[in-house]
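Handout, section B. The chain below has 231 residues.
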Amino acid sequence: MELAQRFQVTDETIRRDFQVLADLGQLTRIHGGASNKSGRPTLQSYDERRGMQVASKQAIAQEALSLIVPGRTYAFDSSTTAFALVSIVPDLPYRVVTNAYAVLEHFVGMEHVELISTGGRYRAKTHTFTGQTTIDTLRRHNIHTAFVSCIGIDPQRGASEGFEQQALIKERLVQLAEEVVLLADSTKLNQRSEYFFANLDQISRIITDRGADPLAVAKLRASGLDVTLAE
């Protein structure tokens, strides 16, 4: 955890202090960190998030794997859930467009995958490229399927993200892709963060895990969404 490294204490100490402050009403615990009185979240870095909900992410990735076929163009966002899928896809002739450093690093050694980096300004905390260059690159490509994740899925307002630059890129991906697959573990249902990037009617399907609240799943399905519960 970034705060643990900064103050040279254990992750458990930071979590305990978060809870104390939450009990005092000085912040609100959220998925991936905490929100202070101003409402702005303190979010965890990419490296920290990779260790969260690992089994759920692996199950979601296995469920999504069948959607990857040769001859198509796929976009992957910088989420650790999308990377769980990236880490198991085969080396086949399809095109990958991404702004995520980890995705680029993984695919660069594959012989058959056509790999396209969006370029842009590199953000060390999220391991991503952002900015106008990134968005301009996305516009040039016919993206068949975009695999994205989020910090929260609200049953009324849709999917949200904690970093504004990431939300802008995901918003553009949602607008450009023929199909949008939201990969989100069950802890993200009925949650919201600062920046909404997709309405529910812009999402083609959601893949979550079997720990999902049945009522939350029912609400999403009632809105017309295809929701799959991964084993």
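Note. The chain is about 35% helix and 25% strand. Compare this with the example in section A.
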